[in-house]
Amino acid sequence: VVYDLIIHNGRIASASHVSDTSVWIGICGDKITTVQSGPTPIASARQVIDARGGYITPGGVDTHVHLQQLQVAPEDDTGDTFVSGTRSAIAGGTTTIVAFANQQRHDESLLPLVKEYHRRAGSGGTFTDYGFHMILTKPSKKILDEELPHLVQNEGITSIKASRVYMTYEARRVNDRDMLEIMLRTRKLGMTLMVHAENDDMVQLVIDHLRENELTEPAHHALARTPLAEAEATNRAICLSNLVSAPILIVHVSSATSMARIRHAQDELQPIFAETCPQYLLMLANAMSPGHSHGGCGCGGAPPSDPESLPLAPSNFSEGADASTVQGRYEGAKMVCSPPLREDRSDLDAVWKGLANGTVTTFSSDHCPSRYNHPKGKKKGLVGCEADFTKIPNGLPGVETRLPLLMTYGVEAGRISIQRFVQVCCTQPAQLYGLQHRKGEISPGMDADIVVWYPEGEIDEVVTNEKLHHDIDYTPFEGTRVTNWPRYTVLRGKVAYDREGQGVLGVKGEYVHRVKGTMGHEKRTETHLERISRFGEAKRLVGTRS
Ligand code: URP
Ligand code: ZN
Ligand code: ZN
Ligand code: ZN
């Protein structure tokens, strides 16, 4: 056999195992064909990568990425395109993304939307493979009963985000009945249902009260969206799911109470899954205020110098940002996302615990960026000297920093194992979202999507925005120390990122036709509705006999 690429001399990490350095990977074309120990047949390889004792992991799968979403006028879109977003992803070790295709209230059909998103992703090309989730805001009968089965069978779209099935963002939220109708269909079709769980009425009440008290600066965003609003919506989503036995995934879990509620449901063998994101592990709400005093954050007064301490308050304010001016404080808008950064260290600790103990199923970026210095980006909430955090576009960039940050503060700092890292960043997101036939694992027959990391101890640097490949003018993790970074990212057998060579290479990503995910659909318990049907059936039978 002649291999197009051989990767050897590293420690191959899977969801369950780490190999020793004698195991090598042989790749032909797009696929991994061989994973074997023993002497590497270097002579029969067209190209060889020497991993020098570093980890070799599957390519990252980031299933929560917002790119070129149809929700704003095109000229208002100051985020990443499919080109810049996937360029950033590949440089951070992510080889597959799933982006959102959102229904707007006036859209009667999802099918033209899917076409439009294909056009958007296809027009400039992508550096990673990609798929789409649908965001539902107005689930008509036609959409539920005709279009969803079509999307699953013909378009390879096997997941939905809803509370758009949001329980939040007034224009996008769906009511409980709609949520239940969606759950019945996703259960039947084997689709994955993502739920954004924040109770919007609870949020809006607090916002009104903050306004009355003239507390409308970016830092107050964290006060508006309480852990209680997240807990209420999480609990409600779990109860709704319970009624119809539908698997759901609670996205971007940020607080202790929600994590505990999810854990409890899992202990009861309910098909409830959880996602979290780097921002909820690494920053607290005080990162939204300049001149952070390192008082209550537990970091000990100085930016931590060893990766076992968490960054908590990165230097994401510009130098000389003046805490005594609205403009200085307004830079906190860079960290405005929903759910917000939490005030209490106990929430952050609970997210770490959930990540380590298996409650968290998947780790995503929720890359949803807006430029800071742009009147239609983050600056939208600043008019003259008046700040209004409710006008700030929500979301952070992070598709490139996701894996290096978890490798640093999770694996190398000893909080999670490398196997756990692979589970939540690669294997489980692939299984949740119907990518398991091609992605998330290093084994023969799978796509050759691979990340080669540096040997531990070789990298010690800080994240700066100049080093990143997105099209955004800041990173929330500016100044944050990292102790590893992908040295090579391989996409379907081709080196797509070479950190010490040419950086990002012009490899073309492809649309991935997803199949049904395998998590949560294993065991179909009878739903309450099915039980009632059974009673009805029995009653009818008795009726025909008499
Ligand atoms: O703040 C965030 N996360 N915005 C993105 C949209 C969402 O809710 O995921
Ligand atoms: Zn969300
Ligand atoms: Zn501090
Ligand atoms: Zn999101």
Automatic annotation (TrEMBL):
Q: Name all Amidohydrolase-related domain ranges.
A: 55-495
Q: Where is this region: Disordered?
A: 294-323
**Catalysed reaction equations from the record:** 5,6-dihydrouracil + H2O = 3-(carbamoylamino)propanoate + H(+)
> Could you say which cofactors this protein requires?
Zn(2+)
Q: Which Pfam families match?
A: Amidohydro_1 (PF01979)
- Name a GO molecular-function annotation: dihydropyrimidinase activity
- Enzyme Commission no: 3.5.2.2
| EC category name | hydrolase
Q: Which family does it belong to?
A: Belongs to the metallo-dependent hydrolases superfamily. Hydantoinase/dihydropyrimidinase family.
The identity of this protein, by name, is: dihydropyrimidinase
What is the source species? Saitozyma podzolica
